[in-house]
């Protein structure tokens, strides 16, 4: 849509605090939303003894920018603000309000730290001190642990699973202990080789799902800290731990050889008590603990599901009123230093959302509960049963056209739960140590004299416990459904690590999928800690030669590498830096980037890549019928080689490392030159390789061609798109580049066309076929032809959701111009068929909003810019007669757009069409 704007009127409304009295104040409102390191709020069991501090300035008329800050840090609340014994930053004249590094006394395991901050505004008025925030460190070193790993030898039972794999029966472990006095404070430090649930004196210690989570266990196991002060009693106490295989000891991946020798699950736990009289007590896991495998959870595996027998429930087994005389003594094993025990560095998985059943379908004796949303987690089952009967619970993401369950795409994952009732009545059960990807639940084995009702089944949606902190909405129903599908794809695949899919026999940290979807996830949710944590796992999984494995944690162990997949180690840290402005993410990952680029170099000849593998995975209409598509691997590998060298160069520059900057920039230039000579004619057409949309996209997105070939390459890309009847022909690697390249080359109308296409292949195609998540394939299912015949056909695979980044940045128009949104670009592209779009994003500085609408000939843009930032607002047409104010200055006014420099506040720009 071409906006013909005769004149603009400009209104700006500065939010809040407009009264005169506010102006007269000598002190200004305090800073809020204080966080440490990657956005933790008052964490317990914190991992970082060199934290950074961030805060937000209040939205107030007298607060536009920060001119100085003062941080005080103390070992006790009473010492603040005047007697800070750990660190007093003094007044620092700077506008830095995020990621301020702690420079005080060294911090130790268990230490509780209190801090607050004040700031001065642009007029050098001082704020009052912020509220006091705190954090408490976990056990930072292996030497802090006095406990031993304990468990029963479940391997000896020799139970074989569905793939002839060893199954470890879940264990129940307990220990009674006596305290002589009253407890003042109690901390439980705990982890497992496996997954656990812990209770003390019959009370659940937390609602965490499958802690401690999934890391490269041979390198590092995360530990969790719980404040258990309120459940400890004076006198006799009991601690009980349920322990199952989880990711540690289940089969994962498709290689049988890996499953035969999984180590038996074990738990490690250390309860540290400070008594009211000041004495300390410590209770540790050791060989005095007792255990049994004769409890109600009979089996539990990630892929195959859980089996529960209520007849074996052990009433009160985590209380003092239970005799464990028939239980076995556990085996104990000292901790070793080759596996680092470190506090978990992001949030645990929790049950985050409850989905009610929408419809019950009864067919041929089965009863199917439809949640009308593909989700990940477990069902909460409240089903009437008869004593001795076994409820069978099956899952499916979709029904086949004939109404039957489609489970072929789960492949070998049995994904089935069983519950045997111990009495007549309504059960109340939720599986504990498994999870499923599903929309439909099929039940059999319940009390058939009772008519099923919707309240029998509730979907408990489980994912890492992050806040969602961005929204996008528009006037177009299908675009809104796409946004919803993107968000559900994220919820479904952020189960402690970023996974490819949540339902079949994979659920692994596929690096390529993470590389393409990561940037979009950063808009939709507060996932900095999630990614920073997984990147540590990537560093730990990097091979000696710099290669990055296909999946992280690496459970395939075959040393195989793929271009475009391993590049996650350069692309994601850099994207995170752009979104957060935190140089720490670059510092932490710089060595990994360099080693990966060295691996690229080693895998090339004359700088042309010989690296293999997945190529433009799942490109539609491949000429050779292959999942790898038609774009040549050497084109892909060389392009990513150049791109990773380029990112490494830019990183070096930000880190102030000029030598490395020069080295990697030169390398990027040399690889680009080789790429251009080897694969592109002077007119910008491809040579020595198949011509595909993705080859052109790689060349243009990664800036690999000299100026003179650029226009030709662009025209060839447009030709390829036109030949495909204005449809995409891109797979995992090409798709995220489409919007970037078409946008940068001024082809926004065409990008709108591709995005709003309804026919295959397009984003709306899957929506038209009923998708409520992003699918693995552009044609995983169609109403006309049914399911894609291949069994690699996940209906919850976030990769193509990568388009979300462009929806925020260009349809709604919010992008960082300077890292961390210190300078924001508001540049929406209002185009048909949309009449409105809006997004909100909680940046490190606070909320940014951009919302536009065209209504009865009036174009309106509402913008909110948070304190301590500025924005460049780019309006799609010329602004006439705008007068500069303190808050808005015209930077340029050309025929087809106007650029304004805008200060913090809320503004409305209006124009009559
Ligand atoms: C996964 C991916 C992954 C791919 C490698 C698949 O099995 O589900 O999404 O990136 O293998 O090509």
Automatic annotation (TrEMBL):
Source organism: Tamlana crocina
Gene3D superfamilies to which the protein is assigned, alphabetical: 1.50.10.10, Galactose-binding domain-like, Immunoglobulins, Maltose phosphorylase, domain 3
InterPro entries: 6-hairpin_glycosidase_sf (IPR008928), 6hp_glycosidase-like_sf (IPR012341), Alpha_rhamnosid (IPR016007), Bac_rhamnosid6H (IPR035396), Bac_rhamnosid_C (IPR035398), Bac_rhamnosid_N (IPR013737), Ig-like_fold (IPR013783), Rhamnosid_concanavalin (IPR008902)
UniProt-recorded name of the protein: alpha-L-rhamnosidase
EC number: 3.2.1.40
Enzyme class, first EC level, given as a word: hydrolase
GO molecular function, one term: hydrolase activity
Keyword annotations: Hydrolase
Domain Alpha-L-rhamnosidase six-hairpin glycosidase: 468-811
């Amino acid at each position: 849509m071409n906006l013909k704007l005769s004149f603009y009127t400009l209104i700006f409304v500065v939010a809040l605090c407009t009264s005169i009295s506010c102006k007269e104040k000598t002190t200004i409102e305090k800073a809020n939303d204080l966080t440490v390191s990657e956005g933790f709020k008052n964490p317990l069991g914190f991992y970082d003894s060199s934290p950074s501090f961030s805060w937000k300035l209040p939205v107030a008329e007298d607060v536009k920018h920060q001119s100085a800050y003062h941080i005080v840090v103390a070992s006790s609340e009473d010492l603040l603000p005047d007697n800070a014994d750990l660190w007093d930053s003094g007044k620092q004249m700077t506008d830095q309000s995020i990621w301020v590094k702690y420079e005080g006394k060294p911090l130790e395991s268990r230490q509780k730290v209190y801090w607050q901050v004040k700031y001065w505004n642009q007029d050098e008025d001082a704020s009052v001190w912020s509220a006091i925030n705190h954090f408490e460190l976990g056990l930072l070193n292996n030497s802090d642990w006095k406990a031993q790993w304990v468990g029963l030898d479940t391997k000896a039972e020799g139970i074989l699973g569905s793939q002839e794999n060893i199954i470890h029966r879940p264990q129940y472990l307990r220990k009674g202990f006596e305290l002589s006095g009253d407890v003042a404070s109690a901390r439980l430090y705990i982890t497992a080789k496996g997954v656990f649930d812990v209770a003390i004196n019959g009370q659940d210690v937390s609602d965490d799902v499958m802690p401690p989570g999934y890391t490269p266990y041979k390198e590092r196991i995360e530990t969790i800290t719980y404040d258990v002060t309120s459940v400890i009693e004076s006198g006799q106490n009991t601690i009980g731990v349920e322990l199952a295989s989880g990711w540690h000891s289940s089969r994962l991946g498709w290689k049988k050889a890996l499953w035969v020798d999984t180590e038996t699950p074990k738990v490690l736990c250390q309860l540290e008590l400070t008594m009211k009289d000041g004495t300390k007590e410590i209770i540790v896991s050791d060989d005095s603990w007792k255990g049994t495998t004769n409890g109600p959870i009979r089996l539990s595996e990630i892929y195959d599901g859980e089996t529960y027998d209520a007849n074996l429930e052990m009433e009160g087994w985590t209380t003092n009123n239970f005799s464990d005389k028939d239980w076995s003594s556990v085996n104990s094993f000292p901790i070793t230093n080759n596996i680092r025990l470190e506090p978990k560095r992001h949030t645990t998985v929790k049950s985050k959302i409850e989905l009610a059943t929408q419809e019950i379908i009864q067919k041929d004796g089965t009863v199917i509960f439809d949640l009308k949303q593909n989700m990940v987690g477990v069902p909460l089952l409240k089903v009437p049963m008869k004593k001795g009967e076994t409820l069978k619970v099956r899952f499916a993401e979709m029904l086949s056209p004939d109404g039957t369950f489609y489970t072929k795409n789960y492949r070998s994952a049995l994904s089935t739960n069983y519950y045997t009732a111990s009495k007549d009545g309504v059960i109340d059960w939720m599986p504990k140590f498994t999870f499923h990807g599903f929309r439909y639940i099929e039940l059999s084995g319940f009390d058939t004299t009772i008519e099923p009702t919707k309240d029998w089944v509730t979907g408990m949606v489980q994912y890492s416990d992050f806040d969602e902190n961005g929204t996008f909405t528009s006037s177009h129903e299908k675009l809104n459904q796409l946004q919803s599908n993107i968000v559900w794809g994220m919820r479904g695949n952020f189960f402690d690590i970023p996974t490819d899919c949540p339902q079949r026999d994979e659920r692994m940290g596929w690096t390529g999928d993470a590389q393409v979807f990561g940037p979009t996830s950063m808009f939709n949710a507060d996932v900095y800690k999630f990614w920073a944590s997984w990147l540590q796992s990537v560093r730990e999984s990097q091979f000696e030669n710099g290669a990055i494995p296909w999946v992280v944690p690496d459970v395939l162990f075959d040393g195989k590498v793929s271009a475009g997949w391993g590049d996650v180690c350069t692309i994601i840290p850099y994207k995170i830096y752009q979104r957060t402005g935190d140089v720490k993410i670059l510092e932490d990952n710089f060595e990994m980037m360099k080693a990966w680029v060295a691996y690229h170099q080693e895998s090339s000849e004359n700088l042309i890549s010989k690296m293999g593998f997945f190529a433009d995975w799942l490109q539609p209409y491949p000429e050779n019928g292959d999942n790898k598509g038609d774009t040549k691997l050497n084109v892909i590998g060389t392009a990513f080689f150049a791109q990773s060298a380029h990112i490494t160069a830019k990183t070096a520059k930000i880190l102030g490392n000029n030598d490395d900057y020069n080295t990697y920039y030169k390398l990027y230039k040399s690889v680009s030159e080789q790429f251009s000579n080897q694969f592109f004619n002077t007119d910008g057409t491809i040579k020595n390789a198949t011509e595909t949309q993705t080859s052109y996209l790689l060349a243009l997105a990664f800036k690999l061609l000299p100026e003179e070939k650029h226009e030709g390459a662009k025209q060839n890309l447009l030709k390829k798109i036109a030949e495909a009847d204005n449809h995409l022909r891109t797979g995992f690697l090409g798709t995220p580049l489409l919007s970037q390249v078409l946008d940068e080359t001024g082809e926004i109308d065409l990008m709108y066309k591709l995005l709003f296409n309804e026919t295959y292949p397009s984003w709306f195609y899957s929506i038209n076929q009923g998708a409520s998540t992003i699918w693995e394939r552009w044609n995983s299912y169609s109403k006309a032809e049914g399911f894609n015949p291949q069994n690699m056909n996940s209906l919850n695979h976030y990769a193509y959701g990568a388009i979300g980044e462009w929806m925020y940045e260009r349809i709604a128009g919010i992008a960082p111009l300077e890292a961390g949104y210190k300078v924001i670009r508001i540049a929406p592209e209002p185009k048909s068929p949309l009449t409105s779009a809006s997004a909100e994003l909680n940046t490190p500085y606070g909320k940014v909003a951009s919302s536009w609408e065209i209504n009865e000939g009036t174009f309106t843009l509402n913008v909110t810019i948070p304190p301590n930032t500025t924005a460049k607002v780019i309006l799609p047409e010329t602004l006439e007669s705008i007068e500069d104010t303190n808050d808005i200055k015209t930077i340029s006014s050309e025929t087809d757009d106007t650029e304004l420099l805008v200060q913090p506040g809320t503004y409305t720009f209006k124009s009559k069409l």
